[in-house]
Amino acid sequence: MMETFKSTLRRRIVLGAIYCSCACLLLALCVNPTVMRSTELRNGGGATIVYFAGLAANQHIPSFILGEITGVGLVMLAYILRCWLALRDETRLKKLYIAQKDERTALILDKAGGTALSVVIFGLALGAAAAGLFSEIAFFALNAAMLFALLVKAGFKLFYGKTL
After folding, report:
1. Which of 51, 77, 101 is the last residue of a domain?
2. How far is it, in rounded angstroms, from Cα 158 to Cα 160?
3. Pick from 119, 22, 33, 154: which is nearest to 162 by CA?
4. pLDDT for the residue numbered 33
5. CA–CA distance, 9 with 6 (Å, rounded to integer)
6. Is the Cα torsion angle 100, 106, 111, 117 positive or negative in sign?
7. How far apart are CA 80 and CA 76, in angstroms?
8. pLDDT, position 91
9. How many CB atoms lie within 10 A of CB 132?
10. What residues contact residue 76 under an 8 Å CB cut-off, 6+ apart?
11. N or C: the chain end with fewer CB closer than 10 Å?
12. Are residues 20 and 66 in the same domain?
């Protein structure tokens, strides 16, 4: 039982390292001045358009993407460290195993996940409404994401309704 959990932790470490490697590569590409450059437009107020990987984007979007990648990468590194330390120490391994296999925790996460997905769908709906005032592309993209979330929720509801 503990050997399968150890192999699961090793797999998580490898997948986390792959993610961190891809994030570092993406960060290196984003910071590269040939990939990201800005151009000032002087017609109509001097708005700045940033060309991010060849695509025109708002000047704040590339910064947001870089911050998001960095934040998720740091969380992933902390998780890798936690798994690595658990593999090295038997007491930490047992604590991590109990924490991840606890039925009460699983039930809480299950119940919270249903509520969280509903909040996400509501947030996407509000975001789509607000984005519709400024950009058609953002409006349709947020509506497509909201539709996808609704379909996922309905699919899981049907699946678990029949299996449980």
Report:
1. 101
2. 6
3. 154
4. 53
5. 5
6. positive
7. 6
8. 93
9. 14
10. 16, 19, 20, 23
11. C
12. yes
